Amino acid sequence: METALEVYNDTETRSPETQPIKRRKKKSMVWEHFTIEAVEPNCRRAFCKGCNQSFAYSNGNKVAGTSHLKRHIAKGTCPALIHTQDNDNNQLMTTPYTPKSDTPRRRYRTQTPSPYVAFNQDKCRQEIAKMIIMHDYPLHMVQHPGFISFVQSIQPHFDDVSFNNVQGDCVATYLTEKQNVMKSLEGIPGRFCLTLDFWTSKLTLGYVFITAHFIDSDWKIQKKLLNVCMESYPEADEALSLAVANCVSEWGLEGKLFSVTFNHPASPSAVENIRPQLCIKNPGILDGQLVIGNCVARTFSSLAKDVLEKGKDVIKNIRDSVKHVKTSESHEERFIELKEQLQVPSEKVLSLDDQTQWNTTYKMLVAASELKEVFSCLDTADPDYKKPPSAEDWRHVEALCTFLKPLFEAASTLQSTGNPSAVTFFHEVWKTQSDLSRAIAGEDPYVAGIAKTMKEKVDKYWRDCSLVLAMAVVMDPRFKMKLVEFSFSKIFGEDAGKNIKTVDDGIHELFSEYMALPSPLKPTSEGGKADGLSDFDTYIMETTGQNLKSELDQYLDETLLPRVQEFDVLDWWKQNKLKYPTLSKMARDILSIPVSAAAFDYVFDMEPREMDEYKTSLRPETVEALICAREWLLENASSSAAEQMASAIIKSEA
C-alpha cells in the first residue's frame, strides 16, 4: 500500500500514460497529521497519525476536502492530544500530537485552537491569599476537603497549601500593600488626625483600630486604616496611649500628629495619657487639647440608649404587638385587611427591630405609631391578639420618637457618601442641647425625666468638644466667629463671653504656632523660590508688624459669604491658599479633624463591636494583616472601578 508521500515522489518519474491527472503539492497543514491510503480501488481515506482514525478523502473523482480533518485536530477531538509537564519551569502546557519533521511548523489559517494559559503555582497562591483577605474567609479553608477537591478538579498539578503557607502569603500581601500606603502618605502636605475605634472580644482581649484622617494635595478629605492593635489589658489606663505611640513610630508620624478622637468611653487618666503624645511630638499644639474623648456617633448611641432604657416597658409592648403580626402569615393578612378597611394612609411597613442597632428600634416605633389605629382595633378582627397597647403607651411612644428623631437624622449623616463636616455637628449638638433645655422646663414629667438624663451627656460632650467644633466653624467663611458668638449666647447665657474668648484665644494661639513653624512647613515666597531678602522680611515684621493685620484677623474681618447649600469649604480654601498661605495650612488641619471614630457600618451600634472568635484565635500580627490588607484592597478595587466608570462616561460623551 502506497503512502501519500510515495505517490507524490513518484509523479515526476511516471510517464503521461501512467499519470492521467497531475496533482498539485498539498499545502494544508493537516497533512502533517494525516496520511492518505488506498483502501479500495478508486477509494482513498485519510488516516490520523496520532489515533489512526480514518476519514473520507476521495472516491473516484470526488475529493472530500480537508475541513473535517482540521476539525479533528484544531478542536482537540483527537484522543492523542496530550498534556506534558515542563519540569524545567514548572509550567503545564497542552500540545497536540506533532510528527517529527525538518520542515518549519505552519499555523492554521482557520479555526485555530484556543491558547493554553501557563500554570504558575506562586501566582495561584497569591490569588488565593487575596481571595481569603478580600472575602474574609478563614485561613483554614485551604485544608478543607471540599476546597482541595475543587482545586484539584480545575488544576491537578496544583500543590496543596498548608495553613502556615497561606498565613505567610496573606502577611506577604499585607506587607506589599503597606509599602504602597506608606508611599502614598509621604507626599501629604498637612498633618494627620487619628481615630481609635475600640473592639472587644469574648477572651477579654481588646483591639484598637487606628485610622488616619487627612486632606490630600488636591484638598480632598481622605482616610486610611493604619493599625489593628491587640491589647491584652484593654482596661489599663496606658492601653490606648501605647497603641497611639506605636502607630506614630511605625508610620513615621512624629511631628505630624494633630488630633486624636476615640469612641471608647475611657477613663480621665487614659485621656490624659494620650495628651503628651500630641505635646511632645508636636510642641505647642494647644497643649494637647485636641483630644476628643468620645466621638459623636458613640455619643448619639449613648443618648439613644438612655431614651430606650426609659421606655423599655412600652417598647416591649410595641415589639410584642409587631411580633404578633409579623410572625404569622394569617395574622399579617388580617392586619392588612383591617388597615384597608380603616383607610389608614400610612405607607410604613412593620418590621421587628435588631436590639443591637438602635435605629431599627426607632423605625419600628415610628411605623407602629403611624399604624396605632389598626393595632387599637386589631382584637376585633384577630381573636388571637390579646394585649393592644394602651393610649398612654402610644403617648409615650410619640415622646420617645420625638427624642430619637433628631439623633437618628444627625447620625444618618455619618453614613452619607461624603464626609460630614464639624460645622454640621456643631449645629446639631447646639440644637439638641437647646431642645433638651426646653423639654426639662416643660410640664410633662415623663418627657422631662428623659430630657434631664440626656442633657447631662450632651453637656459633657459639649465641654469636651466645643473648642474643636467651634474652631472648624471659624474656618468656614460662611460663619467664622459670628455663629460661635450667636450659639454660645444661647447656650451659656451670662458665661457666653468667657467661652467665646476661649475659642478666639485658641484660634489665635494656634495661628501663632503655625506662623512659628520652621521650613519647609512655613510657606516661602510665591512660587517656592527664595529671593535673598529674608532679612528684609524680618526687618519689615519687626518694624511694622504691630500695625499690620495678620492673615487670621484679615480673614475674620472680611464679610461672611452667602450660605449656599452646595458650598465646598475645602475647595474655597484651595482657591484662596495664595491669599492666606499660612492660615490655609491651619484650616487644612482643623477641617480634617473627624467628628466620629465609628466605621460607616457601625454608627448605630448600641455596644462596642466584638472581634469574632476565629480571629481572636490567630496571632495578633495575622489579625492586623488580614483586616488592614482587606481594607486597602477593597479601596483599590473601588477606586479602579470608579476610574473605569469615569473613563466609560468620558468616551460615551466624546
UniProtKB/TrEMBL annotation:
SMART domains noted in UniProt: ZnF_BED
InterPro entries: hAT-like_transposase_RNase-H, HATC_C_dom, Znf_BED, ZnF_BED_domain_contain
Main location: nucleus
Subunit structure: Homodimer.
Domain BED-type: residue ranges: 25-90
Keyword Glycoprotein: no
Alphabetic keyword roster: DNA-binding, Metal-binding, Nucleus, Transcription, Transcription regulation, Zinc, Zinc-finger
Protein name per Swiss-Prot or TrEMBL: Ribonuclease H-like superfamily
Subcellular location: Nucleus
Region Disordered: start-end pairs: 1-24, 84-110
Pfam families in alphabetical order: Dimer_Tnp_hAT, hAT-like_RNase-H
One GO cellular component term: nucleus
Keyword Ribosomal protein: no
A GO molecular function held by the record: protein dimerization activity
Bias-annotated ranges (Polar residues): 87-101
Superkingdom, natural source: Eukaryota
